[in-house]
Amino acid sequence: MFKNIQEMLEYVHRENVEIIDFKVTDMQGTWHRLSITRQKLKEDIMTKGIGFDGSSYGFTTVDKSDMAMVPDVTTCYIDPTKAVKTIACIADIYTIENNRLVRYEDDPRYVAEKAEKLILSSGIADEILLGPEFEFYVLDHVSFDISNNHMEVRLDSEQAEWNASRSDVQNLGLHVRSHGAYHLDSPFDRAYDLRTETVLAAERIGVPVKYHHAENGGPGQCEIEVEFASIREMGDRSMKLRHLLRNLAEKQGKVVTFMPKPFGSESGSGLHVHLLLKNKGQWIMYDKDGYSGLSQTALYMIGGLLTHAKSLCAITNPSTNSYKRLVPGFEAPVTIGYATSNRSAVIRIPGYAVDETEKRFEYRSPDATSNPYLAYAALMLAAYDGIKNKIDPSGNGFGPFDFNLYDLSKEDQARIKGLPTSIPEAFAALKEDRDYLLKEGVFSAKYLESLEKRLMQEHSKIQRTPHPLEFDYYFNR
């Protein structure tokens, strides 16, 4: 929206902007906000930043908690979800060392920036392009209670099949069968207006959208696919899109969840990421004689991603719920391989992407409980490692697997490697395989260790909490 600070200051006063929101992203991928009025906006705030308590964000300890957020003026946009005219501005995080500001090494936005610089400086490519597909459920009710004597979760979607028999309210019979919502039209697709409002608002703030549609899950699953952008820029776009979805849903009396598996017998929600590289204006992913039209560079990228697929899960699938999605039969991958048009493989090469301008592949295991900056950075570092070390996916036993990987013989199950099935498995893999993330200080060992500590604590707490289904199985044994 602005090229420099002076442009912003002039606009704010000329257009009577009331509030400026500064936003920073924590390690989990959640936005935090600090707001000032127009009268308080001065040039030194934009250059020196605003101090905050980094320990409350989980960035640092209380004895070294002073940090600063310094706004990036190029990220500013008018927030359409606010009642008064508000500019939102994404900020970078700094520590204070010897009375001066220093970039905080584990700021997720800085990690994305470092990954991008490393790859581009190699000369392999001068343009990195990522295209995520955001899957999510739009619900009309959620309530939960987890106490020592009561465990309950209630989810509801107006269009869900379980509401077909309701007679206590007006019922028009417009319900969707389980797994039956894919690309449904109105009036069955009840989230259409929300998605439409969201994508129009997204495009107005610089987040171009490829398309949106109803997804497979009957109780209101949706997808929005965002146009391609670089690592840090796509992190920014992802945060903006999630902010719009959640706030616009709340205004319509609905709620959005990116939880990978909110329903046990419905499709889970993933974050498939398409990957493309360009160099000197050339589309370097394409070779008409290569497997599925892919170049050797693209195949090396696949080799790197599949070699590191298990350890990647610690960053791209960082919740216990993630591994309830990564099970056979629900269009989520469980085996480590690649193939054309095969949604049971970790890497799918779209069969409809036939010419050099669109030739690419998608990585299918991530979900949106991940921090987008960190997930995109990790994926591209794995792909870069494949190029640098010329990792051949076929020679390393990763396929191509042009058959249903959900229905394997015992021999194939023993031969083909699988993704982790839990947080402990993912972090066991990360301990053995993390050098590709640490190159040039992109990720820090401290961050990976703090991530493991937090997620293992979550895993342990969930492991020792009784599940309602256990009462059905075992209470009267």
Concise summary:
With 477 residues, the chain is of the alpha+beta class.
Task: Describe, in plain words, how this protein is organized in 3D.
With 477 residues, this protein is of the alpha+beta class. It has two domains: 5-104, Roll (Ubiquitin-like (UB roll)), CATH 3.10.20; 115-464, Creatine Kinase, Chain A, domain 2 (2-Layer Sandwich), CATH 3.30.590.10. The protein is built from 14 helices and 18 strands. It has helices at 5-14, 43-48, 108-121, 192-204, 231-251, 296-307, 309-316, 322-325, 372-388, 410-415, 423-432, 435-438, 445-463, 468-474; strands spanning 19-25, 31-37, 50-53, 66-71, 77-78, 86-97, 100-103, 127-139, 141-147, 150-156, 209-214, 221-226, 255-257, 271-279, 282-283, 335-340, 345-349, 361-363. The strands form three sheets. Strands 8, 11, 12, 13, 14, 15, 16, 17 and 18 form a nine-stranded mixed sheet that branches. Strands 1, 2, 3, 4, 5, 6 and 7 form a seven-stranded mixed sheet that branches. A hairpin with a 2-residue loop joins strand 9 and strand 10 (150-156). The radius of gyration is 23 Å and the shape is globular. The protein starts with a helix and ends with a helix.
Structure characteristics:
single chain, 477 residues, alpha+beta, Ubiquitin-like (UB roll), Creatine Kinase, Chain A, domain 2, nine-stranded mixed β-sheet, seven-stranded mixed β-sheet, 14 helices, 32% helix, globular
